[in-house]
Amino acid sequence: MSALEEIQAFLPCPTPDSWVEEAKAPQNLDILLIDHANCEKKAASTALNLIYRYIDNFELLNKMSRLAREEMRHFEQVIAIMKKRGIEYRNINAARYAAGLRSKVRTHEPAKLVDTLIVGAFIEARSCERFAKLAPYLDPELQKFYLSLLTSEGRHYKDYLILARKAAGDAEVDKRIAVFREQEQELVEALDSEFRFHSGPLK
Hints:
This protein has 203 residues and is mostly helical. The chain has helices spanning 3-10, 17-23, 29-53, 58-84, 97-102, 111-134, 140-148, 150-168, 170-189.
């Protein structure tokens, strides 16, 4: 099983084709890249927050430090593409996806850490799946860039799951994955009013 096939098996459902149709529409390219840049910033911020919060976990500190650096490098690459194409970096509201997943995170430790890591795994896995699904429809520059992200995003997904399993054990993590899989599918398939990188199909 390839890394992408593993991710597809982990996710509860594929990205709807109707989302791909919106994502590849020329009028949505600006929003796609702006929101992608925002997602990379947020991913780096999440990793840094974990580094600040769990200072006694050396494996977490090392994995999240590397992840934060890679996400900020991706952010730099996205804004470079935006600048080249004359796309203004402006404020847009976030999709409900990440917040919807985090609404299921438990508030006591170590459950909070376990759930936060599982949420990170889902976000990275879904991002990887969408890069792969969208890439064939993009211009050569963006296609090459999005396909180049698959390796690192797939590794980030694995890192989050490895850390979660070490924090709680396979049985507990599998039980919590089932909870978040149900929530993730609902978020991915429910209709949205605005197109975003992690939005559902549009109303």
